[in-house]
Amino acid sequence: MKSRPATIRDVARRAKVSVASVSRALNGHKNVRDDTRDRVLQAIDDLHYVPNAAARSLSSSQTRTLGVVLPDLHGEFFSELIRGMDKAASERGYLLLLSTMHADPQLAGQAIAVMRGRVDGLAVMAPQLSRDAIDRLMPEEMPGVQVICQPSKKRPSFIIDNREGAASATRHLLAIGRRRLAHIAGPEGNFDARERRQGFLSAIAAAGAPAPLVGAGDFGEDGGARIVRDWLARGERFDGVMAANDMTAIGALEALRAHGLRVPEDVALIGFDDIPLARHLGLSTVRVPVADIGAAAVERLVAMVTSQEAGATPEVQPLELVLRATTQGRPH
Amino acid sequence: MKSRPATIRDVARRAKVSVASVSRALNGHKNVRDDTRDRVLQAIDDLHYVPNAAARSLSSSQTRTLGVVLPDLHGEFFSELIRGMDKAASERGYLLLLSTMHADPQLAGQAIAVMRGRVDGLAVMAPQLSRDAIDRLMPEEMPGVQVICQPSKKRPSFIIDNREGAASATRHLLAIGRRRLAHIAGPEGNFDARERRQGFLSAIAAAGAPAPLVGAGDFGEDGGARIVRDWLARGERFDGVMAANDMTAIGALEALRAHGLRVPEDVALIGFDDIPLARHLGLSTVRVPVADIGAAAVERLVAMVTSQEAGATPEVQPLELVLRATTQGRPH
DNA sequence: CTGTTAGCGCGTTCAT
DNA sequence: ATGAACGCGCTAACAG
């Protein structure tokens, strides 16, 4: 007996009430007699009735779904962000519709477009897009928040203080006596990468330290390793490296060691993000509370969806300097 | 001018055609004159029309969305699985609706229930649930596949040969001359964990090696470390450890070293999964092609959704032994 | 090739 | 407290 799924009408018939009563009972309205409600519930149970989500959306024009548009993220960063978002969403009865796009702005646009009508709100992370590009892509009429990218004036943004984080990492290098510093930056198109570079440079300037070495990495392990090898091959001298993120730092670490340099004795090294690998490798870094950011963003998004709240003040999550072996004499 | 979104009727009016023609043009039907199609496309562009997904679903009874139900996964395993799935899905015009549930079977049931009517098919990973439990939870009428868990007879399953993987890891330990082996198992309720333990034991038996030590871990770093500390405290002797997964192995590695034991000289160590950490720590392991599994599962699911295909033969993805420093004399 | 129209399943007035 | 009826936006069957 694989009959088609029961509809609200089947339930109404079986409970001997009208569809309106079933709907009311279902949505917990007050004006339903206990007796009626029980009969409805019984019928629902008998028929294994499950409301059709599409019909519900069409008629109520809300989906109880949130769209999440992410760049081509890897590893722990991705999973932590989703974990934070999913937790906040499911606690509030929302589901997450996912779209992991690639760097191309055009794809970003498509990703956002296909979500229209399927979600009540949108959380977008697009560090490679400018503020204006994001503004152009986001549908006017739909609530939206931005996560870890250039803050918008029109939408709440959940960000971190990249400059301060990078500056404090740099000050730490200076504080342990390193003077000839180097920075391996992230992709030029990436907002966070640019901010971190700025933070590094301003800390150097503020301390009156010698002009630093700056190379352009790609947020990846290979990029970090390549830059370091180049420097070393050119005979550059440096005793402290601040990398744009942990993966870059890890690449740098391997290149340094492959060249016979000791870390931290010869060169101190610090990254950014605090991915789990960092802890295991004893890499000093700046911790980004990714899951918290995701949760905060979704929490706010749900508030916007349910109560039309506006407001666009960026919410800045605190960073934390995590000191480990690569900037300390002792092993972790 | 923040008017309500344009509907198909607005488009029809502006293009001076009927809604049916708009629908046909939209869905790429052949029987539309070029002239008509152009006018429709023009109107769509003018009005920034985007079809309402809910209405479309209701009327066509398909959502172009796939549900993904996952356990409380961490790190790279999670992100790789999603990456593989999302790639396969988006290439075919499908979106992923996510639900990360917790171990509780009741929650699993809820997670699946809320997806009814919102997705065309379901991909479920539930290693902590029995075959029967999953069968009971999965809606009869909806296409579904299972990923990395006890294979069902009713649905295609995408699995790995845990026993053979564990056995080959164990044989490798034996082959490099280790005889007093130990196994740190995963949670007893987990299907893959049980299979891996079996694989370990049968390899031991087949080789006629001495009775091994077996401890119950939890797939986590702490569990692995705890078991090793216990063994060491009790004065147990062993020269090779096969851990149920990489995180467990990493915990074991740290406990071993903290106790002054050298790896692999004193104790050889091998894990399972090949998460990125494994490579960085030089941990030997068994590689599970997580992204490929996810992609294959979704690919098959889409086929089932679009063409009612049946079939329930488990698809077994190949594993690969990855040898690194923790089972070899030399560093990686 | 094109237009008219009847549902799809549900929420929600409006009467009663 | 309950029921009848309309409309949400779209697809598809049917007429022309």
Describe the structure.
The structure is a homodimer of 332-residue chains. By secondary structure, chain A is of the alpha/beta class. Chain A has helices at 8-15, 19-26, 34-47, 53-60, 75-91, 105-115, 131-137, 162-175, 191-207, 221-233, 246-258, 276-281, 290-307, and strands at residues 65-70, 95-100, 121-124, 144-147, 157-160, 181-185, 213-216, 240-243, 268-270, 285-287, 315-317, 320-322. In chain A, the strands form three sheets. Chain A has a six-stranded parallel β-sheet with strand order 2-1-3-4-5-11, with helices on both faces. A four-stranded parallel β-sheet of chain A has the order 7-6-8-9, with helices on both faces. In chain A, helix 11 links the parallel strand 8 and strand 9. Helix content of chain A is 46%, strand content 15%. In chain A, helix 1 packs across helix 2 (19-26), helix 1 (8-15) crosses helix 3 (34-47) and helix 5 (75-91) packs parallel to helix 13 (290-307). Chain A folds into three domains: 8-51, 434 Repressor (Amino-terminal Domain), CATH 1.10.260.40; 65-160 and 290-319, Response regulator (Rossmann fold, 3-Layer(aba) Sandwich); 162-288 and 321-327, 3-Layer(aba) Sandwich (Rossmann fold). Chain A has 13 helices and twelve strands. Chains A and B meet through helix 4, helix 5, strand 2, helix 6 and helix 12 of A and helix 4, helix 5, strand 2, helix 6 and helix 12 of B. Strand 2 of chain A pairs antiparallel with strand 2 (95-100) of chain B, so a sheet runs across the interface. The structure holds a DNA duplex (16 and 16 nucleotides).
